[in-house]
Description:
By secondary structure, the chain is an all-alpha fold. It has helices at 17-20, 26-55, 58-66, 72-78, 82-85, 88-106, 113-173, 178-199, 213-224, 227-247, 250-253, 258-279, 282-285, 289-297, 309-320, 325-335, 342-370, 373-400. α7 (113-173) crosses α12 (258-279). It is globular, with a radius of gyration of 21 Å.
Amino acid sequence: MPTAPTSPTSPTAPTGYRSLFRTAEFTPLFLGSAAHNAGGTVGGLALGTLVYRSTGSPLLSALSMFGPSLAQVLGATFLLSGADRLPPRTTLAAISLTFAIATAAMALPGLPPAVLLTGVLLLGLVAALGGGVRWGLLTEILTKDGYLPGRSLFNMMSGLVQVAGYATGGALLATVSPRTCLLLAAALYLTAAVVVRLGLSTRPPRAAGRPSVAATWRTNALLWSSRPRRLTYLGLWLPNGLVVGCESLYVSYAPKSAGTLFACAALGMLAGDLTVGRLLPPAVRTRLATPLLLLLATPYLVFFLHPAPALAAGCAAVASVGFGASLVQQERLMKLTPDELSGHALGLHSAGMLTMQGVAAALAGSVAQLTSPAAAMTLVAGVSLAVTLLLATAARQHRTAPVPAPSGP
Length: 409
């Protein structure tokens, strides 16, 4: 029986992490996202391991874990207008349910790698819409002023889930088959769908009109038309995505220690998000985007020396502190974006970032096929450093450019 629409409480701007959980609807959104992320962590490691064991290919293993991100560009092109034009609760529940069904189907024995890769690419297309809906809803629940601490806590949760998920997944893969782990991931996705469906209230879409390809293109063009927003988007997408290309080679670099490498990287990301989102004052935080992005890539240059798994895990943890830069950049993006486009803008950020992660995984995997995983990680990290410096220079030139005098009548 359909639920009668409710009147969501007015959004609030929390002053600390504890107050977030006293904000109506934050907790079910948080828990549902945690279960969904846990499914992605366990399922991704299981799928990457399954494909690598059957093919021995670093490229196919990287694509099986991060290939869904490649489909994000299609979602951003065709589906993203739905981020502000669809009811959030129903959409988020339907997305998690779709992931549950598809992941359970991937656990069927005998499926060739090509079928598995096709399945994960289709899930990536669906996920492009989910990011916009989830983060747009977060701005409704918390307001723009509360978005940064809220998103910081979500990122910390993601780090903790990844630490636990990769550690648990690595342990499970030593005793049970990857297909069993895929079934566990499907159960986690199903849990996410139930939590979101029962815990969130019925909210109307943020924007009027039906989702369409034309509406998606118009809003994308509007968001991209501002140079400050363009530079912010590129800073969110490129350095981050390239470093994830390095992470996509963990399985082929150290097959027996991949879970440890992923867990240490997630731990570093957790530390970075806690520092940026909670410990640093705004005046300091706003100046740290570029230094954090440089930190994100620099430790991967050590992989040129083929470090042992213990040292490699330490490098991954230190590097991932730099992921805290995305909080600074997202805060800037929200200041540059009208309220009614917040879901679409954050969805475009999420889709572009994940697309770049998929592209970088394919790039890193291709280089690893021709050289070695260590050489590929070093090269991709160097490209990330160069891109960060170029974007910082472009942003500085834009800030110092003289404003043209207005023309006369």
